[in-house]
């Protein structure tokens, strides 16, 4: 029986791609400039990740009340994120469908990339089902259903064409610096950042790895491949309660009286 997002999305190992997804998002100036002007990565580096995870887990696993709660929170956060084009900026709008499509696309492609590096290739039926499921993450907000590419082949064409246009600018590099070298935040998070930077660099397309200023040698590439092989052997043997802990934790934050205030 084919699996889908509900079967795969709870795997905590997908968080290994969190940095990749965020850097891909901000490499597009329509997203990156809005984040730079309206987010505070320097003092709250974990907020965007927490908000994104809470939203995704709620859409996939939550109750109608939880989905409604995260939708309201995201809409509140997005409302002020807009700027008309001027001499200093091409402008942006968090409700722009093309920008929303790109954000969801980064979440989907990153999840599939990490999952397959750890667990091996998805069969076609499972891959098709997971792809169709991911459209819900966008359409639960305002992404028009017909904006999501019709199938995986159409998505691959969209993805390759869009990634090829991306080149991080100064604002994107500043966000990446604040995210990957946090001066604030929980001590455990800061201790985990060397590994997070290493995995992020390994998962990025080469030209974006260079654009964000990562040093990446052949020996680092070999070490990355060895690391992922080890994760692929160890992670699937962990108890489900450990593998699914992030999903259970973030859904727990959506209990009545603990609804999110920002995203």
Please outline the helices and strands:
Elements lengths: L4 H4 L9 H10 L1 H10 L8 H15 L2 H15 L3 E2 L8 E2 L3 H23 L4 H16 L12 H14 L4 H11 L6 H17 L2 H6 L6 H17 L5 H4 L1 H8 L11
Antiparallel strand pairs: 1-2
Helix pairs in contact: 2-6, 2-9, 3-9, 4-5, 6-7
Give a verbal description of the structure.
The protein is mainly alpha-helical. It has 14 helices and two strands, in the order αααααββααααααααα. The protein has helices at 5-8, 18-27, 29-38, 47-61, 64-78, 97-119, 124-139, 152-165, 170-180, 187-203, 206-211, 218-234, 240-243, 245-252, and strands spanning 82-83, 92-93. A two-stranded antiparallel ribbon has the order 1-2. The chain is globular, with a radius of gyration of 18 Å. Residues 257-263 have low confidence and may be disordered.
Give the quaternary arrangement of the chains: single chain
Low-confidence stretches: 257-263
Rg (CA only): 18 Å
Class by SSE composition: mainly alpha
Keywords:
disordered C terminus; mainly alpha; 14 helices
Describe what is shown at a glance.
The chain has 263 residues and is mainly alpha-helical.
